[in-house]
């Protein structure tokens, strides 16, 4: 299905649970294609309930709870803990920890 839409050279693409039900090898290929599209200037809106997938693909993450956007996180701010805290309505969302190099 993805190949069919990509043949039209879109300026934007929306994918909802893009890797649900596919094998690991195909999943990494779909991720690679989506990242490549974004680098090429295509707007990619990915909707996913898989946090590792969200963290791997997103430059910006919008977290929804009860049908409303409750948090917006950049790639640098995002972590599984912060996303889950926002999604579950926890009052305190822990800040990312900076690790010195």
How are the elements arranged and paired?
Blueprint: H1 2-6, E1 12-16, H2 24-39, E2 43-47, H3 51-57, E3 60-65, E4 68-74, H4 80-88
Parallel strand pairs: 1-2
Antiparallel strand pairs: 3-4
**How are strands sequenced across the largest beta sheet?**
1-2
Helix/strand order: HEHEHEEH
Taking the alpha carbons of the first and last residues, their distance comes to 42 Å
Give a count of the beta strands, DSSP E runs of length 2 or more.
4
Please characterize this protein's 3D structure:
The protein has 101 residues and is an alpha+beta fold. It has two domains: 49 residues, no CATH class; 34 residues, no CATH class. Helix content is 37%, strand content 23%. It contains four helices and four strands. The strands form two sheets. Strands 1-2 form a two-stranded parallel ribbon. Helix 2 links the parallel strand 1 and strand 2. It is globular and about 40 Å long. The mean pLDDT is 86.
Give keywords.
single chain; 101 residues; alpha+beta; 2 domains; two-stranded parallel sheet; two-stranded antiparallel ribbon; 23% strand; globular
Compose a concise summary of this entry:
The chain has helices at 2-6, 24-39, 51-57, 80-88, and strands at residues 12-16, 43-47, 60-65, 68-74. The protein has 101 residues and is an alpha+beta fold. It has 2 domains: 1-49, no CATH class; 59-92, no CATH class.
């Amino acid at each position: 299905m993805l190949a069919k839409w990509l043949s039209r050279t879109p300026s934007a693409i929306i994918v909802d649970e893009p890797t649900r039900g596919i094998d690991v090898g195909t999943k990494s290929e779909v991720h690679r294609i989506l990242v490549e599209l974004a680098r090429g200037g295509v707007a990619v809106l990915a909707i996913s309930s898989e946090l590792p997938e969200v963290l791997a693909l997103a430059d910006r993450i919008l977290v929804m709870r009860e049908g409303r956007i409750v948090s917006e996180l950049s790639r640098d701010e995002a972590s599984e803990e912060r996303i889950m805290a926002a999604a579950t309505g926890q009052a305190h969302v822990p800040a990312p920890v900076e690790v010195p190099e």
